[in-house]
Amino acid sequence: MDNNTVYGKEIVTNRDRYSTLPPRITALTAESGDGKAIVSFRAYTEEQEQWLSANAPYILVLKANTVPQSPADGMAAKINHVRGAMLSHTFTGLTNETVYYARVFPINFKGRAQSTLVDQVVSVVPMGMPSAATNLKVVGSGKSATCTWTNPTQSTFYRSVLVRKVGSAPTSITDGTELYRGTGTSYTVSNLELNTTYYFAVFAISSSGSYQDDFPKIKYTTPAYIEEVLYENGQDPSGLTGGFSAGGGWSYDDDGQNSTSNFTYSYSYSGVNCMQLATYGDGGFISTANSLKQIDITNVSAVQIIYSHVVSGTHGAWLNSGASIYFSAKRGVDDFPNVINTEYAFKNLERKGAENTFLTQTWDTTNLTGLKYLNLSCGASYSSNTFFRIKKIVIHKTK
What we know:
By secondary structure, this protein is mostly beta strands. It has two helices and 25 strands. The strands form six sheets. Strands 15, 17, 18, 20, 23 and 25 form a six-stranded antiparallel β-sheet that branches. 32% of the residues are buried.
Protein backbone atom coordinates (compact mmCIF):
# COMPACT_ATOMS: atom_id res chain seq x y z
CA MET A 1 0.00 0.00 0.00
CA ASP A 2 1.46 3.36 -1.00
CA ASN A 3 1.39 6.56 1.05
CA ASN A 4 -1.42 8.04 -1.02
CA THR A 5 -3.58 5.13 0.05
CA VAL A 6 -2.56 5.34 3.71
CA TYR A 7 -2.69 9.13 3.99
CA GLY A 8 -4.86 10.20 1.05
CA LYS A 9 -8.41 10.48 -0.23
CA GLU A 10 -9.09 6.74 -0.36
CA ILE A 11 -9.27 6.64 3.44
CA VAL A 12 -12.07 9.19 3.43
CA THR A 13 -13.81 7.86 0.38
CA ASN A 14 -14.10 4.36 1.81
CA ARG A 15 -15.54 5.69 5.08
CA ASP A 16 -13.08 3.58 7.10
CA ARG A 17 -11.13 6.58 8.43
CA TYR A 18 -11.31 5.32 12.01
CA SER A 19 -9.62 2.00 11.25
CA THR A 20 -6.65 3.24 9.21
CA LEU A 21 -3.60 5.39 9.92
CA PRO A 22 -4.34 9.11 10.19
CA PRO A 23 -2.67 11.55 7.79
CA ARG A 24 0.96 12.23 8.58
CA ILE A 25 1.76 15.04 11.02
CA THR A 26 4.24 17.49 9.45
CA ALA A 27 6.63 20.19 10.71
CA LEU A 28 6.84 18.63 14.16
CA THR A 29 9.48 20.56 16.16
CA ALA A 30 10.37 21.27 19.78
CA GLU A 31 12.24 24.19 21.36
CA SER A 32 13.75 23.99 24.82
CA GLY A 33 13.72 26.59 27.57
CA ASP A 34 14.37 26.80 31.27
CA GLY A 35 12.14 24.04 32.64
CA LYS A 36 9.91 24.12 29.60
CA ALA A 37 9.45 22.84 26.06
CA ILE A 38 7.55 24.44 23.19
CA VAL A 39 6.21 21.82 20.76
CA SER A 40 4.87 22.86 17.35
CA PHE A 41 3.36 21.10 14.33
CA ARG A 42 1.31 21.92 11.25
CA ALA A 43 -2.45 21.30 11.28
CA TYR A 44 -4.10 19.21 8.57
CA THR A 45 -5.03 20.71 5.23
CA GLU A 46 -8.58 20.95 3.94
CA GLU A 47 -8.31 17.54 2.31
CA GLN A 48 -6.72 15.88 5.34
CA GLU A 49 -9.02 17.41 7.95
CA GLN A 50 -11.94 15.21 6.84
CA TRP A 51 -10.27 12.49 8.85
CA LEU A 52 -10.64 14.49 12.11
CA SER A 53 -13.30 14.73 14.77
CA ALA A 54 -14.96 18.13 14.93
CA ASN A 55 -14.45 18.57 18.68
CA ALA A 56 -10.88 17.85 19.88
CA PRO A 57 -8.79 17.27 16.79
CA TYR A 58 -5.35 16.65 18.35
CA ILE A 59 -3.89 15.40 21.62
CA LEU A 60 -0.23 16.39 22.12
CA VAL A 61 1.63 14.19 24.61
CA LEU A 62 5.05 14.78 26.22
CA LYS A 63 6.88 12.14 28.25
CA ALA A 64 10.27 11.96 29.95
CA ASN A 65 12.87 9.43 28.76
CA THR A 66 10.56 7.27 26.58
CA VAL A 67 8.18 7.76 23.64
CA PRO A 68 4.48 8.13 24.62
CA GLN A 69 2.40 5.10 23.52
CA SER A 70 -1.08 6.54 24.06
CA PRO A 71 -2.82 9.85 24.82
CA ALA A 72 -2.69 9.01 28.52
CA ASP A 73 0.99 8.03 28.51
CA GLY A 74 2.51 11.33 29.65
CA MET A 75 1.54 14.99 29.96
CA ALA A 76 -1.27 15.68 27.50
CA ALA A 77 -2.68 18.83 25.93
CA LYS A 78 -5.74 19.08 23.67
CA ILE A 79 -5.22 21.40 20.71
CA ASN A 80 -7.99 22.64 18.47
CA HIS A 81 -7.67 22.40 14.73
CA VAL A 82 -6.92 25.47 12.55
CA ARG A 83 -6.70 24.42 8.93
CA GLY A 84 -3.07 24.43 7.68
CA ALA A 85 -1.80 26.58 10.55
CA MET A 86 1.25 26.02 12.74
CA LEU A 87 -0.03 24.96 16.16
CA SER A 88 2.00 24.93 19.36
CA HIS A 89 1.81 24.28 23.06
CA THR A 90 4.24 25.09 25.90
CA PHE A 91 4.83 22.43 28.55
CA THR A 92 6.16 23.89 31.81
CA GLY A 93 7.43 22.48 35.10
CA LEU A 94 9.86 20.15 33.34
CA THR A 95 13.12 18.84 34.73
CA ASN A 96 16.11 20.50 33.13
CA GLU A 97 18.71 18.39 31.35
CA THR A 98 16.19 15.52 30.94
CA VAL A 99 15.18 14.12 27.54
CA TYR A 100 11.47 14.45 26.72
CA TYR A 101 9.63 12.97 23.71
CA ALA A 102 6.62 14.61 22.09
CA ARG A 103 4.01 12.84 19.96
CA VAL A 104 0.72 13.91 18.37
CA PHE A 105 -2.44 11.76 18.59
CA PRO A 106 -5.22 13.00 16.25
CA ILE A 107 -8.86 12.21 17.16
CA ASN A 108 -10.37 10.16 14.36
CA PHE A 109 -13.84 10.19 12.77
CA LYS A 110 -15.25 7.98 15.52
CA GLY A 111 -13.88 10.27 18.27
CA ARG A 112 -11.05 7.94 19.13
CA ALA A 113 -7.41 8.91 19.53
CA GLN A 114 -5.34 7.13 16.99
CA SER A 115 -1.56 6.81 16.94
CA THR A 116 0.55 8.34 14.21
CA LEU A 117 3.62 6.51 12.97
CA VAL A 118 6.36 6.05 15.58
CA ASP A 119 8.81 8.06 13.45
CA GLN A 120 6.60 11.11 13.95
CA VAL A 121 8.19 11.91 17.32
CA VAL A 122 10.43 14.77 18.39
CA SER A 123 12.75 14.96 21.39
CA VAL A 124 13.73 17.99 23.47
CA VAL A 125 16.00 18.65 26.47
CA PRO A 126 14.97 21.61 28.67
CA MET A 127 17.97 23.59 29.85
CA GLY A 128 18.15 25.82 32.89
CA MET A 129 19.03 29.45 32.46
CA PRO A 130 22.47 30.40 33.84
CA SER A 131 22.90 33.28 36.23
CA ALA A 132 23.79 36.63 34.73
CA ALA A 133 27.43 37.56 34.17
CA THR A 134 28.93 39.84 36.82
CA ASN A 135 31.71 42.40 37.33
CA LEU A 136 31.34 44.02 33.90
CA LYS A 137 34.00 46.73 33.54
CA VAL A 138 35.37 48.79 30.68
CA VAL A 139 38.77 50.49 30.44
CA GLY A 140 39.39 52.72 27.45
CA SER A 141 42.37 54.30 25.76
CA GLY A 142 41.84 56.57 22.79
CA LYS A 143 39.74 54.79 20.20
CA SER A 144 39.91 51.40 21.95
CA ALA A 145 38.13 49.94 24.97
CA THR A 146 38.55 46.64 26.78
CA CYS A 147 35.55 45.00 28.44
CA THR A 148 36.02 42.40 31.18
CA TRP A 149 33.44 40.35 33.08
CA THR A 150 32.94 37.19 35.14
CA ASN A 151 31.01 34.25 33.67
CA PRO A 152 28.56 32.16 35.77
CA THR A 153 29.77 28.75 36.90
CA GLN A 154 26.56 26.68 36.47
CA SER A 155 26.56 23.76 34.07
CA THR A 156 23.77 25.49 32.16
CA PHE A 157 26.15 28.28 31.09
CA TYR A 158 27.01 27.94 27.41
CA ARG A 159 28.41 31.20 26.04
CA SER A 160 28.78 34.90 26.80
CA VAL A 161 27.66 37.41 24.20
CA LEU A 162 29.00 40.98 24.27
CA VAL A 163 26.79 43.59 22.60
CA ARG A 164 27.55 47.27 21.91
CA LYS A 165 25.11 50.08 21.22
CA VAL A 166 25.44 53.84 20.67
CA GLY A 167 23.23 56.30 22.55
CA SER A 168 21.32 53.92 24.84
CA ALA A 169 21.79 50.60 26.60
CA PRO A 170 20.88 47.34 24.82
CA THR A 171 17.50 45.96 25.88
CA SER A 172 18.06 42.47 24.48
CA ILE A 173 20.73 40.32 22.89
CA THR A 174 19.71 41.53 19.42
CA ASP A 175 19.49 45.23 20.33
CA GLY A 176 22.89 46.45 19.15
CA THR A 177 26.05 45.16 17.50
CA GLU A 178 27.35 41.76 18.62
CA LEU A 179 31.08 42.01 19.30
CA TYR A 180 31.94 38.67 20.85
CA ARG A 181 30.45 35.21 21.49
CA GLY A 182 32.38 32.59 23.44
CA THR A 183 33.49 31.43 26.87
CA GLY A 184 36.14 34.11 27.40
CA THR A 185 35.94 36.94 29.94
CA SER A 186 37.39 39.89 28.04
CA TYR A 187 37.25 41.58 24.66
CA THR A 188 38.93 44.66 23.19
CA VAL A 189 37.04 46.73 20.65
CA SER A 190 38.92 49.22 18.46
CA ASN A 191 38.14 51.95 15.92
CA LEU A 192 35.63 53.65 18.19
CA GLU A 193 34.56 57.19 17.38
CA LEU A 194 36.00 59.87 19.64
CA ASN A 195 33.71 61.93 21.89
CA THR A 196 30.98 59.28 21.59
CA THR A 197 28.97 57.47 24.29
CA TYR A 198 28.79 53.68 23.96
CA TYR A 199 26.87 51.13 26.03
CA PHE A 200 28.05 47.55 26.48
CA ALA A 201 26.05 44.56 27.76
CA VAL A 202 27.02 40.94 28.43
CA PHE A 203 24.49 38.10 28.07
CA ALA A 204 25.30 34.74 29.70
CA ILE A 205 23.25 32.31 27.63
CA SER A 206 22.26 28.65 27.80
CA SER A 207 22.63 26.30 24.85
CA SER A 208 19.12 27.27 23.80
CA GLY A 209 19.99 30.96 23.88
CA SER A 210 18.03 31.90 27.00
CA TYR A 211 19.43 34.47 29.42
CA GLN A 212 18.50 36.39 32.55
CA ASP A 213 16.59 39.66 32.24
CA ASP A 214 18.93 41.39 34.68
CA PHE A 215 21.99 41.18 32.40
CA PRO A 216 24.80 43.68 33.25
CA LYS A 217 25.22 46.90 31.27
CA ILE A 218 27.87 49.63 31.37
CA LYS A 219 28.31 53.08 29.84
CA TYR A 220 31.57 54.39 28.34
CA THR A 221 32.35 57.69 26.63
CA THR A 222 35.43 57.93 24.47
CA PRO A 223 37.72 60.95 24.99
CA ALA A 224 37.23 64.10 22.94
CA TYR A 225 40.75 63.74 21.54
CA ILE A 226 43.83 61.56 21.50
CA GLU A 227 46.95 63.11 22.94
CA GLU A 228 49.89 62.47 20.63
CA VAL A 229 53.41 63.44 21.76
CA LEU A 230 55.47 64.87 18.91
CA TYR A 231 58.54 65.78 20.92
CA GLU A 232 59.61 65.13 24.52
CA ASN A 233 62.83 65.37 26.52
CA GLY A 234 65.15 65.36 23.55
CA GLN A 235 63.35 62.48 21.88
CA ASP A 236 61.85 62.86 18.43
CA PRO A 237 59.35 59.98 18.10
CA SER A 238 57.47 61.40 15.11
CA GLY A 239 60.34 62.78 13.03
CA LEU A 240 59.17 66.26 13.98
CA THR A 241 62.55 67.96 14.15
CA GLY A 242 63.79 66.77 10.82
CA GLY A 243 62.72 70.10 9.34
CA PHE A 244 65.02 72.13 11.60
CA SER A 245 68.43 73.57 10.84
CA ALA A 246 70.51 76.16 12.64
CA GLY A 247 69.14 79.54 11.67
CA GLY A 248 66.89 77.77 9.22
CA GLY A 249 63.78 79.26 7.69
CA TRP A 250 64.86 82.89 7.67
CA SER A 251 67.06 85.40 9.48
CA TYR A 252 67.31 89.17 9.61
CA ASP A 253 70.33 91.31 10.63
CA ASP A 254 69.83 95.03 10.20
CA ASP A 255 73.42 96.22 10.56
CA GLY A 256 75.64 93.31 9.55
CA GLN A 257 77.09 92.94 13.03
CA ASN A 258 78.27 89.63 14.37
CA SER A 259 74.87 88.31 15.50
CA THR A 260 74.46 84.54 15.57
CA SER A 261 71.86 81.83 16.10
CA ASN A 262 71.83 78.10 16.57
CA PHE A 263 69.48 75.18 17.10
CA THR A 264 69.68 71.74 18.66
CA TYR A 265 66.91 69.34 19.60
CA SER A 266 68.92 67.62 22.35
CA TYR A 267 70.13 70.38 24.64
CA SER A 268 70.62 69.67 28.35
CA TYR A 269 68.71 72.19 30.45
CA SER A 270 67.27 71.99 33.95
CA GLY A 271 68.01 68.28 34.20
CA VAL A 272 66.28 67.30 30.96
CA ASN A 273 67.13 67.31 27.29
CA CYS A 274 65.31 70.03 25.38
CA MET A 275 64.95 71.44 21.93
CA GLN A 276 66.72 74.81 21.94
CA LEU A 277 66.59 77.80 19.62
CA ALA A 278 69.14 80.44 20.63
CA THR A 279 69.80 83.88 19.19
CA TYR A 280 72.64 86.17 20.30
CA GLY A 281 72.39 89.87 19.44
CA ASP A 282 75.55 91.96 19.01
CA GLY A 283 74.91 95.60 18.21
CA GLY A 284 72.19 94.87 15.69
CA PHE A 285 69.00 92.91 15.43
CA ILE A 286 68.77 89.27 14.39
CA SER A 287 65.98 86.74 14.40
CA THR A 288 65.79 83.12 13.46
CA ALA A 289 62.74 81.06 12.53
CA ASN A 290 62.85 77.29 12.38
CA SER A 291 60.14 75.20 10.74
CA LEU A 292 58.95 71.86 11.96
CA LYS A 293 57.94 69.12 9.57
CA GLN A 294 54.35 69.29 8.40
CA ILE A 295 51.65 68.94 11.04
CA ASP A 296 48.23 68.51 9.48
CA ILE A 297 45.87 70.15 11.95
CA THR A 298 42.67 69.37 10.03
CA ASN A 299 41.63 67.01 12.84
CA VAL A 300 43.71 68.59 15.61
CA SER A 301 41.87 70.59 18.25
CA ALA A 302 44.89 71.96 20.13
CA VAL A 303 48.68 72.21 20.22
CA GLN A 304 50.41 72.30 23.59
CA ILE A 305 54.02 73.31 24.22
CA ILE A 306 55.93 73.05 27.49
CA TYR A 307 58.80 75.51 27.21
CA SER A 308 61.22 77.90 28.88
CA HIS A 309 61.72 81.34 27.32
CA VAL A 310 64.59 83.31 28.82
CA VAL A 311 65.87 86.70 27.64
CA SER A 312 69.12 88.14 28.99
CA GLY A 313 71.26 91.20 28.29
CA THR A 314 71.00 94.98 28.38
CA HIS A 315 68.05 95.27 26.07
CA GLY A 316 66.40 92.00 26.94
CA ALA A 317 63.03 93.64 27.48
CA TRP A 318 62.69 94.93 23.94
CA LEU A 319 59.69 93.72 21.96
CA ASN A 320 61.68 91.88 19.34
CA SER A 321 63.74 89.99 21.89
CA GLY A 322 61.49 86.97 22.27
CA ALA A 323 60.11 83.69 21.08
CA SER A 324 56.97 83.17 19.02
CA ILE A 325 54.90 80.37 17.55
CA TYR A 326 53.20 80.48 14.16
CA PHE A 327 50.61 78.23 12.58
CA SER A 328 51.32 78.81 8.94
CA ALA A 329 50.18 77.70 5.51
CA LYS A 330 53.81 77.29 4.50
CA ARG A 331 57.09 76.37 6.04
CA GLY A 332 58.99 79.24 7.59
CA VAL A 333 58.12 82.91 7.17
CA ASP A 334 59.91 85.79 5.48
CA ASP A 335 58.28 88.85 6.99
CA PHE A 336 59.20 88.87 10.66
CA PRO A 337 59.18 92.69 10.84
CA ASN A 338 55.49 92.50 9.79
CA VAL A 339 54.36 89.45 11.72
CA ILE A 340 50.78 90.66 12.19
CA ASN A 341 49.76 89.27 8.85
CA THR A 342 46.39 87.71 8.12
CA GLU A 343 48.06 84.67 6.60
CA TYR A 344 49.47 83.61 9.94
CA ALA A 345 48.12 82.88 13.37
CA PHE A 346 50.74 84.67 15.46
CA LYS A 347 51.20 83.77 19.12
CA ASN A 348 53.73 85.40 21.48
CA LEU A 349 55.14 83.10 24.11
CA GLU A 350 55.16 84.37 27.65
CA ARG A 351 58.63 85.24 28.86
CA LYS A 352 60.15 83.69 31.93
CA GLY A 353 63.03 85.70 33.37
CA ALA A 354 64.25 83.02 35.75
CA GLU A 355 66.23 80.01 34.65
CA ASN A 356 65.26 76.39 35.33
CA THR A 357 61.51 76.91 35.02
CA PHE A 358 58.99 75.74 32.41
CA LEU A 359 55.64 77.10 31.28
CA THR A 360 52.80 75.27 29.58
CA GLN A 361 50.66 76.90 26.90
CA THR A 362 47.90 75.39 24.79
CA TRP A 363 46.47 76.88 21.61
CA ASP A 364 43.07 76.06 20.21
CA THR A 365 43.57 75.15 16.54
CA THR A 366 39.98 74.18 15.76
CA ASN A 367 39.41 77.10 13.40
CA LEU A 368 42.84 77.28 11.77
CA THR A 369 41.63 75.88 8.46
CA GLY A 370 44.36 75.26 5.93
CA LEU A 371 47.23 76.01 8.31
CA LYS A 372 49.41 72.93 8.39
CA TYR A 373 52.81 74.00 9.67
CA LEU A 374 54.04 74.84 13.12
CA ASN A 375 56.82 77.45 12.95
CA LEU A 376 58.93 78.61 15.85
CA SER A 377 60.96 81.81 15.99
CA CYS A 378 63.51 83.22 18.37
CA GLY A 379 64.66 86.84 18.10
CA ALA A 380 67.25 89.02 19.83
CA SER A 381 67.89 92.78 19.60
CA TYR A 382 71.18 94.54 20.18
CA SER A 383 72.93 93.22 23.29
CA SER A 384 70.23 90.75 24.29
CA ASN A 385 70.29 86.98 24.05
CA THR A 386 67.14 84.88 23.67
CA PHE A 387 66.86 81.21 24.52
CA PHE A 388 63.74 79.26 23.52
CA ARG A 389 63.87 75.78 25.08
CA ILE A 390 61.11 73.26 24.43
CA LYS A 391 60.58 70.29 26.71
CA LYS A 392 57.49 68.82 25.08
CA ILE A 393 55.17 69.32 22.11
CA VAL A 394 51.75 67.61 22.13
CA ILE A 395 48.80 67.69 19.74
CA HIS A 396 45.17 66.75 20.46
CA LYS A 397 43.81 64.63 17.59
CA THR A 398 40.03 64.50 17.23
CA LYS A 399 39.92 61.65 14.70
